[in-house]
């Protein structure tokens, strides 16, 4: 991606304005996304008439579907990117105190065309009730850039790290799906 980025800058001649507000810079750094690869379900058994002898009509009918998306980098690199005139739209404190304004801004953002000249980065504080965690655990609806420290690893992963890393474990920023 770095070579393609440099080639794009050279070929288009675009000038990207630098951030002058450190909190805005930090906000955008936190909003950056990359790819995420996870195995959601380790085992799943289909139960439908096409499974032959293993089909059990007394159980719910289930199917397995493999879904993939192609050319995600190519698509993303052909979309509009912010290059300047950065500004905060409205403060979160103002929106917290004005529910009607929240609805107004949400409508404005949701109705933004995909090829609009002005687009938005959103920070959303989401809470998922404990009763939904089991249902959402295989594919959490939100991801977060966070440093993976040894103290948040599972016991099995910690054991693997201890046996394989030769004391070289470094906390690394990853895109993590979690609740």
UniProtKB/TrEMBL annotation:
<protein>
    <submittedName>
        <fullName>8933_t:CDS:1</fullName>
    </submittedName>
</protein>
<dbReference type="InterPro" id="IPR043502">
    <property type="entry name" value="DNA/RNA_pol_sf"/>
</dbReference>
């Amino acid at each position: 991606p770095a070579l393609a980025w440099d080639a794009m800058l050279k070929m288009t001649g675009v000038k990207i304005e630098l951030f002058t507000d450190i909190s805005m810079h930090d906000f955008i750094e936190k909003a950056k996304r990359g790819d995420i690869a996870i195995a959601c379900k380790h085992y799943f058994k289909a139960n439908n008439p096409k499974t032959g002898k293993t089909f059990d009509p007394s159980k719910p009918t289930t199917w397995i579907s493999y879904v993939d998306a192609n050319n995600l980098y190519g698509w993303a690199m052909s979309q509009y990117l912010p290059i300047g005139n950065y500004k905060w739209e409205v403060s979160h404190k103002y929106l917290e105190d004005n529910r009607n304004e929240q609805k107004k801004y949400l409508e404005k953002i949701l109705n933004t065309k995909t090829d609009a000249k002005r687009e938005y980065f959103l920070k959303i504080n989401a809470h998922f009730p404990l009763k939904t965690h089991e249902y959402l655990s295989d594919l959490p609806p939100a991801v977060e850039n966070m440093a993976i420290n040894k103290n948040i690893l599972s016991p099995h992963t910690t054991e693997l790290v201890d046996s394989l890393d030769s004391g070289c474990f470094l906390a690394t920023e990853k895109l993590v799906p979690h609740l």
